Amino acid sequence: MSEIPDAQPFTPVSDVGEFGLIDKMKAALADAADARDLVAGIGDDAAVYRVGAAGSDGPSRVHVITTDALVEGVHFDRTYVPLRALGWKAIAVNVSDVAAMNARPRFATVALGLPNNLSVEGAEALYTGMAQACERYGLAVVGGDVTASARLTLSVTVVGEAEERAVVYRRGAQPGDLLCVTGDLGSAAAGLRVLLAGKDRMTAGDGAADDPPQPDLTGFAYAVERQLMPQARLDRIEAWAEAGVRPSSLIDVSDGLASEAHHLSQAGTVGAVIDAGLLPVHVQTALAAQRFDERAEAFVLYGGEDYELLFTIPEAEASKLSPDTYAVVGQVVEPKEGVALRLPDGNRVPLEAAGFRHV
Amino acid sequence: MSEIPDAQPFTPVSDVGEFGLIDKMKAALADAADARDLVAGIGDDAAVYRVGAAGSDGPSRVHVITTDALVEGVHFDRTYVPLRALGWKAIAVNVSDVAAMNARPRFATVALGLPNNLSVEGAEALYTGMAQACERYGLAVVGGDVTASARLTLSVTVVGEAEERAVVYRRGAQPGDLLCVTGDLGSAAAGLRVLLAGKDRMTAGDGAADDPPQPDLTGFAYAVERQLMPQARLDRIEAWAEAGVRPSSLIDVSDGLASEAHHLSQAGTVGAVIDAGLLPVHVQTALAAQRFDERAEAFVLYGGEDYELLFTIPEAEASKLSPDTYAVVGQVVEPKEGVALRLPDGNRVPLEAAGFRHV
């Protein structure tokens, strides 16, 4: 009689989450890496490697590369996301990662998984949105793969370029630096809330009525646009280059301010104190919070998908920037102070790293 | 009474197929392209762009970039594909596209879509296979994205490098050139046939027996290995560089010899005659054809996934190569002769462009 073999171990992927799986990928692939010319691998918004002939004069140039996928049912819902907006977003979120290295996007490749219920016209709408984003951000799609797929999937890789000395990483913040963001935060999450409410109302109609109720987007056009067609802040990258300014650390806000502030704290090498009174909140974000009985602060801290830039910079450097192009939201502090939110009464509450999670 | 709005046009994606959808992507994105530094965009095995500071001395250097996704239920079936092999294959097929430009792979990014029924251990097996392929081919995975997904999906992008003058394209064949391939063809398709037969036998067991019948792979280990863990022919790229040889055109055999020969004919700019008697067929391919009552020739011409290199080269150039590193399978001819198979009796039959299709 043969013995029953040991069962294969089965640890659900949800036990380790997206970041845990990426850490494991990094660990498994680090030894195999041919690290020649590699400046930074997995772990920042994009990887960095040197290009250009050795011994050429002029500053050393690098390319950065990043990949991000949008998966139906995980990152988006086709019932309220137009396909053109989806094509735009797939490019823009990758451009945002390139901007978060202080680099400029140049080339993209796109791997599309198309389900049977997507039409050729739908695929063309995706392409149109991609083309518009490429035109806006000055990059070219140079490679494509199309396969069948159970769910609509857009995997985009973007290559960007920079001078090596201009690249800004997540690490680099120093106690005393200002903690700053471009634009406003939380509006993309507010827009998602509005879209979901609109979907609920449509679904409630249940096909019984001849005229199903339309989603009520009145007064929330800005927030909805922020969710559907986010803007990568390349304009700020260009302004910094013109002003000769280089932040000490930089990340884009894809998972909410709390999570990104923890990334900049470099596993506790520095701390960060965020002032609750300084959070840049758009009026529609505040109104959406009111309407849906949520806190605008929660949209800002844990909402995600704003694709603004969070950066640290010495005060003297910041003074070279036009004051209407960024908001100071706090300060980099000593590591023992941790990552905290300072309330209007002066009390501090520790901020959890929790942020927006698709997995 | 409101009028009924026109229905949205709905053309199923299957009407235009993978190549049609890529052509449409190319058309939609061409105008938006910032083509600075771009040597070749969508349409070859990989795109080509210049890197390196302008004005540097030495030969002009380029990077090539390619992306290819493997999707569960479309490209593979987890019932008979080990996850380690799948990780290997996802890297190897992209390395093969880089080799097909006469370039060497350097960096990769990986976007994984993981379903709930994959374990952390399964993800680690994927990573192990990727790491082994990276070590074998001398490249590093520098970027990763992991998301949830209904079906296991591996989207890989590989960046390679070459001197600009060394790059070989699909175009470039001249009448009189020899048509050559590395290795043997059809064995990957034979291996797939063996695996599918094994799956059928397992399924026939239907859980009723205590010992379900094992798939019969006896005698087909080579063919099965070719299907599960294909080799990218970087060794040939290196041998050509050492011998100072540059083919006039080049492509990798992912869709079967017939389809690839049509690609090299450049939409009829040249013709190609393939000799049926010269097709390099492994004994296991012949035996599998016999076993399953198919024609070995069909595996070679329409099977696909061999990832060997198909190239054209002037006879004088070919004579610099070691004769056991390639097989001559035919000749490039005048365009009016088309793409044809020459039978042993001297008759020619036109070859359809049909090849292996996942979509």
Automatic annotation (TrEMBL), chains A, B:
**Residue numbers binding Mg(2+) 3:** D45, D97, D252
> Any idea which positions bind substrate?
H75, E305, F356
What organism, scientifically named, is this protein from?
Answer: Rubrivirga marina
**Function (record text):** Catalyzes the ATP-dependent phosphorylation of thiamine-monophosphate (TMP) to form thiamine-pyrophosphate (TPP), the active form of vitamin B1.
Domain PurM-like N-terminal: from-to ranges: 43-161
Q: What is the lineage of its organism?
A: Bacteria, Pseudomonadati, Rhodothermota, Rhodothermia, Rhodothermales
- For the PurM-like C-terminal domain, which residue ranges apply? 174-337
Classification via NCBIfam families: thiL (TIGR01379)
Chain positions recorded as Mg(2+) 5 binding sites: D255
Which superkingdom is the protein from? Bacteria
Residues annotated as binding ATP are Y127, G144, D145, R170, S254
Note from the entry: Reaction mechanism of ThiL seems to utilize a direct, inline transfer of the gamma-phosphate of ATP to TMP rather than a phosphorylated enzyme intermediate.
The pathway this protein participates in, as annotated, is:
Cofactor biosynthesis; thiamine diphosphate biosynthesis; thiamine diphosphate from thiamine phosphate: step 1/1
Q: What is its EC number?
A: 2.7.4.16
Q: Where does Mg(2+) 1 bind?
A: T67, D68, D145
Residues binding Mg(2+) 4 are D45, T66, D97
Could you state a single Gene Ontology molecular function term? Answer: ATP binding
The name of this protein is Thiamine-monophosphate kinase
Give the protein family.
Belongs to the thiamine-monophosphate kinase family.
Q: Does the keyword Cell membrane apply?
A: no
| Listed GO biological process terms | thiamine biosynthetic process; thiamine diphosphate biosynthetic process
The residues listed in the UniProt record as binding Mg(2+) 2, with positions renumbered to this chain, are D68, D97
Catalytic activity, reaction form: thiamine phosphate + ATP = thiamine diphosphate + ADP
**The entry's keywords:** ATP-binding, Kinase, Magnesium, Metal-binding, Nucleotide-binding, Thiamine biosynthesis, Transferase
